[in-house]
Amino acid sequence: MIEKLLVANRGEIARRIFRTCRTMGIATVAVYSEPDRDAPFVAEADEGIALGGATPAESYLRIDALVDAARRSGADAVHPGYGFLAENADFARAVGEAGLLWVGPPPEAIETMGSKLRSKELVADAGVPTLDSIDLTGLDEAEIREAAERIGYPVLVKASAGGGGKGMRIVSDPGNLIDAVEGARRESAAAFGDDTVFVEHYLEAPRHIEIQIFADTHGTTVSLFERECSIQRRHQKIIEEAPSPALTPELRERMGKAAVAAAEAVGYLGAGTVEFLFQEGDFWFLEMNTRLQVEHPVTEEITGLDLVRLQLLVASGHPLPPEAREPTMTGHAVEARLYAEDATKGFLPVTGVLDRFRFEPGIRVDTGVEDGSEISIHYDPMIAKVIAWAPTREEATARLANALRQAEIHGLVTNRELLVRILRHPEFVAGTFDTHFLERHDPALLARPLPDAEEERLAAVAAALCAQEARRREATVQRTIPSGWRNSPSQPQRVTFEGPSGEIQVGYRFVPRTGLIVEVDGEALPDVRPISASPDRVGLEIGGHLRWYRVHRVGTAHHVDGPAGYSRLVERPRFPEAEIEELPGSLHAPMPGKIVKVLVSEGDRVSEGDVLVVLEAMKMEHTLRAPHDGVVSSVQAGPDDQVDAEQVLVVVDEEG
Known about the structure:
By secondary structure, the chain is α+β, with helices and mostly antiparallel strands. It has 18 helices and 40 strands. It has five domains: about 5-105, 3-Layer(aba) Sandwich (Rossmann fold); about 130-200, Dna Ligase, domain 1 (2-Layer Sandwich); about 205-445, ATP-grasp fold, B domain (D-amino Acid Aminotransferase, Chain A, domain 1); about 455-570, Glycoprotein, Type 4 Pilin (2-Layer Sandwich); about 585-655, CATH 2.40.50.100.
């Protein structure tokens, strides 16, 4: 068995692998970049070795540094995790050449399946259904247009390497084809070091269903059932479940056999995932991921198997245990990916500090963060995977939605509200969705705050009362006198908050024999009676209905978790400073990042919606467009410049 394992990854991935290692008595080694020096995963390992640098290219993608770290630590094996170099054949070879055990498939299998083009040819020969595709390598613009016409619009331009939705573009209008190909090539080269892209027909209403397979060195390859991964944004999964509500037992068996055939065709070993597009009872091979998947916990929950343990056993030469060779499926599991992103603004990634991150017991949370962790510009913005299991799909979905609603996730905008509304949506509950769910249902509406305007007003009352209670406890004199008390009648004490619905002013005052009374925006609330208050918890009786609110204050931000969900309220200063004026038509960087391209110069005439700047941040490209028709009066950044959030990049003077 392995004695000491180096995990060539970070965050929740490393923590997940360390967890299994502890149960198996295997010592662990973490590697880390400079921004990750104080990250939780480093502290959880038995040893940690610095890689240097901040970006993935300077740290986690350096094969030489990773192999050197394994040697220095005395590790006898390397687990690549999932992401980064997990599907890099050169890394697998380098580990083997260094005399270390590689926890993964053979380099040849990684190489073959790592190319979506080559893997499609291979599995087609093994009898697995595939969609037609054309490699665009070496083709000029005219030939690229001809290839797309042969496939038939709409088409999908797709990177041959990697995954996670990077290097993918849907093209319905032939006029956008060349820009889509160039963008996909840039993104693929940046993410995977390979700019090979191809074009294939884009299915109108498919489901995305994948099969978890496992193979050992003793000739056994098995299917551990399917996962449904159709709820996606930017071709990246955000909700996964097992089993799929779309499959019959007969279809499950057919797809499982096809997945096993695909794995055996390449001499596979270890954990892998064969992905299919499914539509109206037919399925087509999409790709094979030669690693453990982000969504593997739902398979673990329904089978009772620890997939990381199976990986370590297989890598050590052991056969798959009986419970894996003849797997059984019990109940239903659903996973949601919690991201630091603003779904009301096109899923714009968000950076910053998580002031608080807590879930109630009884739910599985795989995460690399804790209170005070920073989400930086250098890595993917996923905060956690939240997983619920129950005997039925209905119960599992309800458990997950409720756990997300009740969680304390403070300090950053996340996609929590979007996830809760998807899980509660009639189409999802009925199991009739496909990969275009978020095209039919506006993400900006699904991601709006869970509390409505009236609930937000009550949250503001709770925030004001908690704040006054904190002030009373911090008082150096007359601490026992109720807040707002006066010898003679007076105006209420007032505090103003800025919330998602706008400005909210809360007033409160103490009245003898009546107690504390409150008002909102000048309107008395006679049915609202505070019954208890502490600096972090308030009980409100509302027309005989008791409701509790938890309040966490950080600076001027009041994070309120109530029965309807989370509200973020920012306290307005009593004497606000004058705002600095800026030129109208200023185009800002939405987040810190690097400028990839600037497509305009001063004096250029532009139309509303024209792409002016391409920014790369958090492993994705973001296009910034002209806010209106006009003339470019100022360009304040150039290619390769590092820019801060809200920095002005271009100014467009409006015509007329």
